[in-house]
Design brief:
Blueprint: H1 2-77
């Protein structure tokens, strides 16, 4: 009888270990997935920063051109 109890304990322990292994594997996969999503988001952020820089430069050029045009118009009025 006692041997059956010991076997049940070992069987229960084995099931718990198997469950823990499955949980750990699922956790590792989720971690890898999260790292990949983070990397993709970092790339998107870098791209958007580049876009912002281009837009800021274009805005500055437009300001300079408008200023130049206004100066020319002011000279015409004299």
């Amino acid at each position: 009888m006692e041997r059956d109890g010991e076997l049940n304990h070992f069987q229960l322990l084995e099931e718990r270990v198997d469950s823990l292994i499955q949980f750990t594997e699922a956790f590792k996969k989720e971690k890898e997935s999260s790292i990949e999503r983070f990397r993709i988001q970092e790339e998107k952020i870098a791209d958007l920063k580049g876009d912002i820089e281009l837009l800021l430069r274009a805005r500055d050029r437009a300001k300079q051109m408008i200023s130049s045009l206004l100066t020319k118009i002011e000279k015409l009025e004299l």
